Amino acid sequence: MCAERCTYGSGRRSASALLTPLATWQGFVYVAFVIDTFARRIVGWRASRTAHAGFVLDALEEALHERRPVRGGGLVHHSDRGVQYVAIKYTERLAEAGVEPSVGSVGDSYDNALAETINGLYKAEVIWRRGPWRNFEAVEFATLEWVDWFNHRRLLEPIGNIPPAEAEARYYAQRKEPAMAP
Q: Which GO terms describe its molecular function (predicted)?
């Protein structure tokens, strides 16, 4: 899927979404991410004490506000088949925004490989390294710090060993430069 849809130049853009549960001393915390697949930038995220559809919808709203997709612009939103992502409210909001949903097959993490990769980095760089976690607030604050670091300072090999925000800025800077005459 990403080979045909993950470049801005092709006119098709995509986002991947993922929900991950985390254990704390006071119970579980759930963190949802929405990731721009071109630059690997996290464009929306939320943490919640319960795995309800509303909090993943909040992460989607943040991503929509950040990206302001053009209706009919070819934006594809890929996720797994988690109940939050196939909930009526969630799919209706995607339709309202003109975003095409794409849902992976059951039990196949390869269908959402980018989101799974970033989730693995999140767990390795924050959750497992700094845990065990006391409570929701500790996880939420650590996630806030990590998302900022990830987007602006984390070097990623697939995008040229630069941070996601820089990859995105370079792309838009190249689009604004006038073409050179031969």
A: nucleic acid binding
Structural domains of the chain, count: 1
Any domain includes 182: no
- Here the CATH number for the domain that contains residue 115 is 3.30.420.10
Confidence category of residue 176, pLDDT binned at 50, 70, 90: confident
Give the rounded distance of the alpha carbon of 178 from its chain centre. 31
DSSP string, 125-136: IIIHHH-SB--H
Contact 22, 30 (CB under 8 A): yes
Q: Which of 148, 160, 84 is nearest to 122 (CA)?
A: 148
Query: What pLDDT, on the 0 to 100 scale, is given for residue 68?
Result: 81
Q: What is the mean pLDDT of the chain?
A: 88
Question: What percent helix, strand, coil does the chain show, rounded to 5?
Answer: 45, 25, 30
25: pLDDT strictly greater than 60: yes
Residue span of the structural domain in which 26 resides: 2-176
Query: Is 50 part of any domain?
Result: yes
Query: Is 88 within a domain?
Result: yes
